[in-house]
Amino acid sequence: MTDTTNTPDRNRRPGRRVGSSNSRALILEAALDQFATTGYGRTSIRSIASAAEVDPSLITHFFGTKEGLLAESLSHLDRLPVRIRAALTRADPDKAETLARTYFGAWEDASLGPRLRALARAAAESPSAATVMREALETHIFTTLEANSTPRQFAHMQVAMSQLFGTAFARYILEIHPLADLGLEELVDHVAPILRSVFAEAESD
Amino acid sequence: MTDTTNTPDRNRRPGRRVGSSNSRALILEAALDQFATTGYGRTSIRSIASAAEVDPSLITHFFGTKEGLLAESLSHLDRLPVRIRAALTRADPDKAETLARTYFGAWEDASLGPRLRALARAAAESPSAATVMREALETHIFTTLEANSTPRQFAHMQVAMSQLFGTAFARYILEIHPLADLGLEELVDHVAPILRSVFAEAESD
Q: What is the ipTM of this complex?
């Protein structure tokens, strides 16, 4: 699949090396941009290749399918899953605030926010994207949590994460008022007591 | 927009009266079916007309735009918004259980469930559908709640509803395990304590 023909400019910028780790990053960047603007269902390998200025075969070489590309892009969220897992497993009294601030802070971040919206939209829109999202959550967050908790505690952690996601959906996708008008710290103040009660419930088991 | 030409069969079943309340119901039925199977973005007035066996102009006559059709279909959810509003404003100790059972029961209902999934997908996929959804929530649920609560209490109610939606998304759309494997009553047992703490927090204001 590597390009050894050295053909002159096929609509590529001079100096772009095909197959370099740079192309990989450019492809992921273009994919997330298109998932965010065009929607997952209407984005094609071909349109991503065109935006990243690489050959479509390079994308299939690196990532296999569009689902593979989505899976890979989920691990390029500025270490968000790692930060969430760390916040969930912290043993300190501000755990609820830290978790809420980490999660909503990411949705408000100028670069991460549009990507999280794109990924939520993709999962809602396409069953295969939902599968990719579920597997990413399992790999990056749930496996560790499950190993360190009882089944009831684990189900409670999932309920806590559902709380965060539902609030993000209402605030950043539906833009429901007044939820969408609160400042980040006000939002944390509303959500943290609920997360605390989830944690207390889990610890009482 | 009314058809006065009395042209013979234009692909309509004999005996179907154009403009009758029956056509209206058939159009809504076809729209919800297509939103559920094809997705909101890829459904057109023309494809709904074809499935309902009516002229496309009849759909624009009744509902205006595709957004209008979505708005109307939201009020055909077996009185779900009314039942949710009633559960939220009940003054009884089982309020949290009733609300959770009403809401998740609807997602598990053989006829309502696919429609709720279709509507959640539409809102995630299309900003104009998100606007329709937000306006429907305001009209059918939030206006009454807001009139009867302080701003902080109202924000708390929205957080409670976000909890329900987030859990439904994780369970019925992402199908995250073990959340997706719980029986309805087990699910109610997990979510009700959290709703109770939201209500307690709201009442303490």
A: 0.79
- pLDDT tens per residue across span A108-143: 998 888 888 888 888 888 888 889 888 888 888 888
Residue pairs spanning A and B at CB distance below 8 A:
134
Pairwise CB contact (< 8 Å): B162 & A166: yes
C-alpha gyration radius of chain A: 20
Please tell me the distance from the alpha carbon of residue A36 to that of residue B23, in angstroms, as a whole number.
Answer: 37
- Domain A21-74: give its CATH code: 1.10.10.60
Q: Report the distance separating Cα A128 and Cα B200, nearest Å.
A: 39
- How far, CA to CA in Å, does A163 sit from each of A92, A160, A194, B69, B161? 20, 5, 9, 30, 9
Query: The domain B80-203: what is its CATH number?
Result: 1.10.357.10
Of all residues in chain B, what percent carry a pLDDT higher than 70?
89
Whole-number pLDDT of residue A17: 46
Amino acid making up residue B137: L
Q: How close is the nearest chain B Cα to the Cα of A86, in Å?
A: 20
Give the residue from A163, A173, A185 with the most B CB atoms within 10 Å of its CB, the best one to mutate.
Answer: A163
Is B141 touching A (CB cutoff 8 A)?
no
Task: Please state, rounded to an integer, the average pLDDT across all residues of chain A.
Answer: 83
How many Å is the Cα radius of gyration of chain B?
A: 20
Entry field: residues in chain A: 205
**Domain boundaries of chain B, sorted by first residue:** 21-74, 80-203
Q: Which of B134, B197, B201 comes nearest A176 by C-beta?
A: B134
Q: Do B155 and A182 touch (CB under 8 A)?
A: yes
Cβ contact A163–B166 (<8 Å): yes
Give the percent of chain A with pLDDT over 70: 89
